[in-house]
Amino acid sequence: MAHRYRWEDLPGPVLGVVRDHLGEIGNAVPAGQGQSCDVALTVYRAEQSPVFLKGVFGISREMRWLRNEIDAAKTVAGLAPAVVFHRDIGDWLIVGFEYVEGRPVNLEPGSPDLAVVASALDRIGAIRAPELKPLGERWKTSWWQRIVDEKPHLLNEWRLDELTGWERKVPELLTGDRLIHTDIHADQFVIAPDGEVRVIDWGWPASGAAWIDPAFLVLRLIGAGHQPDTAEAWARAHTRWALASAEEITAFAVYVAGLWTYRATTEGLARLARDYATWRLRAKPR
Asked: Which of 91, 74, 71 is nearest to 203 (CA)?
């Protein structure tokens, strides 16, 4: 997590630019979002809508991720939060986003929010984004080999040759020209009081097959209480997950299980991915 600056800690030139764009600031409250940013504040103004302020200090991958969010506001206009302003100020990048008031979606079985999520994913999957780096180019690491080298107890009863065989298939199987969010989970969907939905945190977009974001969602559905077969059945009926072959889904599941096992911040998330991959490999479902 980046070092967090409070409003009063920001350098004068940054404060000046923010005031130039937003006017006088009545209050600036630290926000729970924007974990990779040095600044994440909800900025309140008299008689005007609040603004969600993000900022990064120094050339870094975090700055690149924030620039990705600026671009996404245009690519996914009406679904991603709009950009109010953005400025480079010395070594700082400061961005003011539309403040999205609302709640995260509920992904539990029977939730009425599932229809909203499906609609949002359909809108994302309809967008062509061939200019973005393909996800398959990112996903070339053999995470399972690293796990065997560094955390061999996590391999359990699986065979390394089987897992790495699936991993090698992944880059080609992900091929496509559609926009992918790549970090789909309940907190990324914000439902406003009027029922409108926004999809936030576009720091890691990619191009690839339209079924990839729905495949990420299947994992989150299982984590929210769905059984693997019912989660997949829902995705097949309501999202572009239905475009994927059994081979593509299984390869995806094995790769994500390795990736999350090696890099996930919580063991629960890693275990979820491993359990799903095990189910795919053993049950060999559609």
From this structure: 71
